[in-house]
Amino acid sequence: MTAIETFTGDARPYSGGDPYADYRTADFPFTHLADLADRRLGAGVIAANDEFFAQRENLLLPGRPVFDPERFGHKGKIMDGWETRRRRGASAGHPWPAGDDHDWAMIRLGTPGVVRGIVVDTAHFRGNHPQAVSVEGTAVDGSPSPGDLLGDDVKWTTLVPRTPVGGHAANGFAVTAEQRVTHLRLNQHPDGGIARLRVYGEVVPDLAWLTALGTFDVVALENGGRVLDASDLFYSPAANTIRPGRSQKMDDGWETRRRRDHGHDWITYRLVAQSRIRALEIDTAYLKGNAAGWASVSVQDCGEGGEGGDGAWREILPRTRLQPDTNHRFVLPAPAVGTHARVDIHPDGGISRLRLFGTLTDRGRGELEARRQELGG
């Protein structure tokens, strides 16, 4: 695996101008994966032992943290993150925190998954960040309370061991634990502030739930679909097209730059598993003067793991005129079986959502069950 750049120590005090001018960050190899802690998937910070200076919910806010040097409240500086009070020792003779003292926040992931990488972002926490962090994970189905998760019968696995981190920096960690996770415990040693938490990984869908639904969106991010590649990512991520709900603003979809040639743009997807597709939607919500002019959809049926099979793309929706700011629905004349999908837009522009409604095939159901068993049932 590619070495990940690490940061330690305080950042320089803020002295005016762009607060991100001296922000320390790096390219992390796992950030193309879904953020399992995205609130749009249903993630939440369900508990914390302390949030005296800044509330725990800030950890999962979308977008990068903001900094207002003049903003203070009755408790002190108002920070866009989660910040705890300063820990103290047990006595005047030993005023320092004990070696194992730490603060924690508990996170419910938006969807169960295998974690591949974590970013603990300390943006704007320059001298008040934790000295080190650690992250643990567990898998508990249903809707357990914080008390349930803190019970002696719940087994937590270390995903990130206690590791020094830097202030005003994106601290990235690769995770190698091959297991299904539903909840995380973020620990900061001994105290301090963290601005954002991002948890990148692969969705592991609930087969029982999908089976009970019968027909569902087989490319949706929350069900295990994912974007593989796209021709253009100039304005917004292609993964927006498979996020939950309708787009709420223009940049909540996928938009490409203006083409000056006779080409076209496209996105390829991996479905949750082999599926039988019966209907689809292409939504151009909030794309009014920049919606794609036409779109077509194709499927491909590959063997297990994306290998084998005939590998041929078969068009299930021919090139069709799209209207701006409109949800377009199509019922297929016959079901289409596939493991992958592709949307082509002509000549450029964007779409906000793609929905592929179908059911798992017997093979697809078997693959999901086998994967769940590999990850510990």
Automatic annotation (TrEMBL):
It catalyses: allantoate + H2O = (S)-ureidoglycolate + urea. Coiled coil: none annotated. Gene3D superfamilies: Galactose-binding domain-like. The keyword Hydrolase applies. Its EC number is 3.5.3.4. Pathway: Nitrogen metabolism; (S)-allantoin degradation; (S)-ureidoglycolate from allantoate (aminidohydrolase route): step 1/1. InterPro entries: Allantoicase (IPR005164), Allantoicase_dom (IPR015908), Galactose-bd-like_sf (IPR008979). Pfam families: Allantoicase. Keywords: Hydrolase, Purine metabolism. GO terms for biological process: allantoin catabolic process; purine nucleobase metabolic process. NCBIfam families: allantoicase. This is Probable allantoicase. It comes from Streptomyces sp. R02. The lineage of its organism: Bacteria, Bacillati, Actinomycetota, Actinomycetes, Kitasatosporales.
